[in-house]
Amino acid sequence: MSGLVVVHSVLVADVGVTSLVPTAQISGDDVAPKGMALPLILMRLISGTDRKPITLGATVMTRQRVQIEVHAADSVSRKAVKEAVRSAVLNNPFPAVSGLSNVTLHTDGEGPDFFAEATSVRIGEQDVIVTYSEAV
Predict the structure, then answer these.
(1) Most-buried pick from 32, 35, 63, 115 (CB within 10 A)?
(2) Which residues lie across from 122 on neighbouring strands?
(3) Which long-range contacts link 35-41 to residues 24+ away (Cβ below 8 Å)?
(4) How much is the pLDDT for 1?
């Protein structure tokens, strides 16, 4: 779950993102709390792999795919937040995160954008690949 911590730390530290989405509305949860104002950002771990060597050392290299989901009231807001998220990741590919080393971020799959009819919310997705070393 450290990939979520890395992505969260990059997004809440980026003024371009937080000017559009308050930090309290950037969450590592898979569902938005009822009644939360829009726009908001949810992050979820999609997959992860440890690169364990045959002879275990003091650290293990991990690769995780994190999906960033943007929820917005309209397509203009959704597009602006997605662009800010992509910019935050692209501008901080080597974030410093306590307890982790060799941290890297790469944008990965984008989309799709869609409309949740039940809630009238527009949703856009951006995947990020996070790699890092962590003490065993």
Answers:
(1) 32
(2) 72, 115
(3) 38/71, 38/72, 38/73, 38/77, 38/121, 39/70, 39/71, 39/72, 39/73, 39/77, 39/78, 39/81, 40/70, 40/71, 41/11, 41/17, 41/68, 41/69, 41/70, 41/71, 41/81, 41/85
(4) 64
Q: Could you tell me the domains of the chain?
A: 2-135 (3.30.2000.10)
The position carrying tokens 């994190």 is 66
CA distance 38 to 41: 9
Question: Can you tell me the distance from the alpha carbon of 55 to that of 57, in angstroms, rounded to the nearest whole number?
Answer: 6
Tokens representing 21 are: 């989405």
- For the chain, the helix, strand and coil percentages under 3-state DSSP, each to the nearest 5: 25, 40, 30
Looking at residue 8, its amino acid is H
Are the CB atoms for 40 and 24 separated by under 8 Å?
A: no
CA distance 75 to 113: 9
The Cα–Cα gap between 39 and 18 comes to 11
- Can you give the C-alpha Rg of the chain in angstroms? 15
Q: Are strands 100-110 and 40-51 parallel, antiparallel or unpaired?
A: unpaired
Below-50 pLDDT ranges, the chain: none
